[in-house]
């Protein structure tokens, strides 16, 4: 199998301008904070076919107050269709913005790993593997975590506590050596 080139987003660089459609039909800039917050947590999830994503989104809902308290807004997005997202609401109970229709080109712009479904029973489109981006008040990527499978994701309590520490101590963006 030939290795493919996939450029990852680097910490400390500008988060790309990507518009996504929220479930309510509104368009939103993926990395721009709203609701009185000045940082943004962007959660990319695989889609409604993934039980681990369902669990993660529900856990994020239960921990969202910790992020909001630190000034961090939240959005989640997948490549699912509106109908798939609507079906997913049977299993998720969230009250933060959620978007759908992330295109393969947008997934590539975000430097995500992209998978093809194993069968039509899984889903009907290529989908992004999990990614987490925290965009600071300057529009820079403060924290980035991408995975090639659903089993490796940041613990949300640790992430919330870490962001509180970063903000409180003016902790620098890490991982920027040599670029």
From TrEMBL:
Name of this protein: Redoxin domain-containing protein
Record-level Gene Ontology MF annotations: antioxidant activity; oxidoreductase activity
Database matches in InterPro entries: AhpC/TSA (IPR000866), Thioredoxin-like_sf (IPR036249), Thioredoxin_domain (IPR013766)
Database matches in Pfam families: AhpC-TSA
SUPFAM superfamilies: Thioredoxin-like
Thioredoxin domain boundaries: 9-168
Origin superkingdom: Bacteria
